Amino acid sequence: MEAENPGLSEKCVIGLHRWPAHSKVIPLLAINPRDTTPMNFSQIVPILQVSVGPVILISGVGLLLLSITNRYGRVIDRSRVLGDEVRRSGHASGHVWPQVEILLRRARLLRVSIIFGVTAVLCAAVLVIGLFLGSVFVVPLEYFVVALFSTCMVSLIVSLVYFLRDINLSLAALDVDMKNTRAAVAGRAGDAQR
Known about the structure:
Order of helices and strands: HHH
Largest sheet: none
Distance between the termini: 97 Å
Structural class: mainly alpha
Shape: rod-shaped
């Protein structure tokens, strides 16, 4: 299809839709089938500016993922320490099993948070590619961009909700540990008084 635009000197192919002649909007780049000159730097810069915006989102979510994976690693390490304690002693004391159960729940929450965080980063990366290709080839990708950006944001929100649930659950693990510590101290104090 061809369309004419007052900002363009010749008829140009504009993706798969007509570009109205009365439109005040000039596409960033229109592909002219008769023009064989390569794109110059001034044509590429606006395209890159449009495409690089979501990269900031990738950086931010990447830092969040770094924090979540560090917490996940600590949960796994603590579970292994408790498992070694049970194997060495041959039996589990009363405070070990509640902690292991909480650690298992935390690991599951963090895993889901990581999955949704990675999904958000992947959506943002595809969004960058889509914006770049849509600008270069002047293809209407509005619905694609809206759907991808919405998916990215929903994934990020879900990741953060699971991250917050893990933080609350880690406080529950600390409560279990403190109760056991108080009970042990009280038991030793009672034995010392006898």
